[in-house]
Amino acid sequence: MTVQGDLIFKHGRIAPEDAVQRVLVVDDSASQRKLLCSYLRRWGFQVGEAATGQAALDLCAAEGFDLVLSDWTMPGMTGPEFCAELRRRGGERYVYFVLLTLKASKDDIAQGLEGGADDFIVKPVNPHELRARITAANRILGVERELIEKNRLVTRTLTRLRGVYEGLNRDLIEARKLQNSLVPTNSVSLPGGTLSFLFQPSGHVGGDLVGYFPVAPDRIGLYSLDVSGHGVASALITARLAARLSGATPDRNDALCRTASGAIAMLQPEEICAKLNSDFLREVETEHYFTLAIAEIDLTARRAWLAQAGHPNPLVQRAAGGVEFPGTGGLPLGLIEGAEFERIELEFEPGDRLFLYSDGVTECPTPDGGMLDEDGLADIFVRNAGLRGQQALNALSWDLSALIDGQDFPDDLSGALLEFR
């Protein structure tokens, strides 16, 4: 075995793994073609030959070659013209082009390079120089073929990923439908009041949830929760929590219990927060946490007992239009074992309303780079005091969308609006 540069010759023949396998010799001189072809065949190449540029183009189209050795001066079509036409036609694989010429001036070399040639050999051709030029061509074409194969691999991978993404996207769309089904889409009529909901995830699925459950004919539990983060993980935790706050019996709802007489009652809101906090820390291994505002509402007496766990202060709008934000804040759930929570009591008059919402509402960006905050939310409710139920929540969503110029919300939006008749 002999080694010439980077090109390996086994017993003087080209190795099968080399990029240059097929060579086309183009020259109007039969003797020159015969001499070059004899060198190339001795080295193990498959060789084709043509006497004119047009015949060479036809051969390239029919058979395909890795390297072309072409004379500069030929009748009909010169070597540079043949090269330019070959480049114009293109092909699946790059063809390395070497011009054979008696000309060696800088202008001639520049003309050949502009036509698409890769290299030059000055006649008469020295076999050692020819082999060295093929070595360089083999190295360059090897890199080019490797890049082509890598690009094919990338293309195949991207195609597979696109299929995976499309499947995941379909699954997420279905997941969003299921998550939306957890929140009533229309206002709910209750004894002495009406309950309406806002739910708008920032992505396919979100970490927010609002809902209610019956306690007694004139009592309900009302809650708003927000799991940290976004996406699938947050949505799965939200679904788990929804299952623990649904149903009308204690065995299906962690917020309910039975009295000594066997009647169904609701735990104190602060007790519910403590229970969920302890259970979450014990049962779920995750870096996520969640905030919660949960209240028991006496619809007849128009009273509410509410506890917060890191959730925004509830909004209370009086019938006359004024807005208040009572609340104690509290720690989020799932962070500290043994955290304690406070209860507040709220009283309402006919026409008053209570709004529980996630921080995606008050933290909505404003054009000046700030956030909506409680003052901005109060302004919206005062401005839309004449709207009731779902219309009021639609107006809130439109006003928030206008603040961000119709772009996607950076966080989930959710809320539950209870209005006393």
From TrEMBL:
Keywords: Hydrolase, Phosphoprotein. It comes from the Bacteria. Gene3D superfamilies: 3.40.50.2300, PPM-type phosphatase domain. The keyword Hydrolase applies. PROSITE patterns: RESPONSE_REGULATORY. Residues 22-138 form the Response regulatory domain. GO terms for molecular function: phosphatase activity. The keyword Phosphoprotein applies. InterPro entries: Bact_Sigma-Reg, CheY-like_superfamily, PPM-type-like_dom_sf, PPM-type_phosphatase-like_dom, Sig_transdc_resp-reg_receiver. One of its GO terms (biological process) is phosphorelay signal transduction system. It holds the Pfam family Response_reg. The modification 4-aspartylphosphate is found at D71. PANTHER family: STAGE II SPORULATION PROTEIN E, STAGE II SPORULATION PROTEIN E-RELATED. This is Fused response regulator/phosphatase.
